[in-house]
Amino acid sequence: GVEVLDPELAARPVRAVTHRAEDLGPEVIGVGVHEWYADLHPAMLAATTPAAALLVDRPGRSASGSPVLQVANANVALSTLAAELEGRPAQRIPIVGVTGTDGKTTTTTLVASALTRLGWRVARTGTLGAQLAGAPHPLSRTVPEPPELHALFSAMLREGCEVAVMEIGSFGLRFHRADAVPFHIGVFTNL
């Protein structure tokens, strides 16, 4: 957890967290993450839309006058905040994580199919998108950004899924997208 010592900051309502400067608003926390395609820290600080707060991992000033909080790792902070704001849904469903150089999609599909044949209501996520109890659900990427990922776990619970099988690519690991996911079983296909 996080203890906010400033009473004014602690009293601000927060309804969402984002890594996208264009999604900022008065009840949104913006996080300047590092991604494979860009360092989003400068864009977050340059945004002119006021936010509940901006979290960054190096010093800077907000162009909008929003409070700026420095954290050790912005990507980890985004993962943690997204899970918290969504009510930690990943803690209420067993999750099998599959990673490795090759065979992740095949392995997640086989494991999900086997569990389904055993009578479980299964969610599967990965390169092919997501399936929630057999229904397709589009994804932005193999391992979505944490706000989308934890909203997906909430959707799994609403759909009555009893277990999730999740493909974890190297970018998902490198950029801490699944840091707040408590995997019950890990599968490493190969290197």
CATH topology descriptor of the largest domain: UDP-N-acetylmuramoyl-L-alanine:D-glutamate ligase
Supply the helix-strand structural class.
alpha/beta
Q: Tell me the total number of β-strands.
A: 10
What oligomeric assembly is this protein in?
A: single chain
The largest β sheet comes out as:
6 strands, mixed
Following the backbone from N to C, one meets helices and strands in this order, namely HEEHEEHEHEEEHEHE
Count of separate DSSP helical elements: 6
Total discrete domains: 2
Strand content: 15-25%
Mean of residue pLDDT? 93
The outline comes out as: elongated
Distance between the termini: 35 Å
Helix content: 25-40%
How would you characterize this protein structure?
The chain is of the alpha/beta class. It folds into 2 domains: 7-85, MurE/MurF, N-terminal domain (Udp-n-acetylmuramoylalanyl-d-glutamate--2,6- Diaminopimelate Ligase, Chain: A, domain 1, 3-Layer(aba) Sandwich), CATH 3.40.1390; 89-188, UDP-N-acetylmuramoyl-L-alanine:D-glutamate ligase (3-Layer(aba) Sandwich). Helix content is 28%, strand content 21%. It has 6 helices and 10 strands. It has helices spanning 7-10, 41-46, 74-85, 104-117, 146-158, 170-174; strands at 16-18, 28-31, 53-56, 68-70, 95-99, 122-126, 129-132, 135-137, 163-167, 185-188. Strands 8-7-6-9-5-10 form a 6-stranded mixed β-sheet, with helices on one face. Strand 6 (122-126) and strand 7 (129-132) form a beta hairpin. Helix 3 (74-85) runs parallel beside helix 5 (146-158). The longest helix has 14 residues, at 104-117. It starts with 6 loop residues before the first helix and ends with a strand. 38% of the residues are buried. The mean pLDDT is 93.
